[in-house]
TrEMBL record:
Gene designation: acpS
Function summary: Transfers the 4'-phosphopantetheine moiety from coenzyme A to a Ser of acyl-carrier-protein.
Residues that bind Mg(2+): 8, 58
Keyword Acetylation carried by entry: no
Species for this entry: Paucilactobacillus vaccinostercus DSM 20634
Record's catalysed reaction(s): apo-[ACP] + CoA = holo-[ACP] + adenosine 3',5'-bisphosphate + H(+)
Protein's name in the database: Holo-[acyl-carrier-protein] synthase
Length: 120
């Protein structure tokens, strides 16, 4: 049963600019494992990865129905790419199946998260 769904659209340039102005912001957004994947990328691929993880966590918080804040932080979920580049939720505060999708253009990243679990 679908428990929640969340969609987010993020401008890559906005995330790049935030990172320039606040270089430590990705310590707040990325888990240590996500940061390791981020550091293996260069240039635009890094910006897309950071924007993608920001957007995934926004989508996840929307699917939970909490938004990011008191009840959910960026560190409460971890999304890692497998060897083929497909993102997977490997850690989250949700006890169920987490389906994720990420899509990029040159300017935007769009993400969707679907939470699947047992009815309460």
């Amino acid at each position: 049963m679908i428990i929640g769904t969340g969609i987010d659209l993020t401008e890559i340039e906005r995330i790049k600019q935030m990172h320039v102005e606040h270089p430590h912001m990705f310590d707040k957004i990325l888990t240590p494992n996500e940061r390791a994947q981020y550091e293996k990328r260069q240039g635009q691929a890094q910006a897309e990865y950071l924007a993608g993880r920001f957007s995934l966590k926004e989508s996840f918080s929307k699917a939970l129905g909490t938004g990011i804040g008191r009840h959910f932080s960026f560190q409460d979920a971890e999304f890692l790419d497998d060897e083929l580049g497909k993102p997977h939720a490997v850690q989250s505060v949700f006890d169920g199946v987490v389906h994720v999708s990420v899509s990029h253009t040159a300017q935007l990243v769009m993400t969707q998260v679907i939470l699947e679990g047992k009815p309460e």
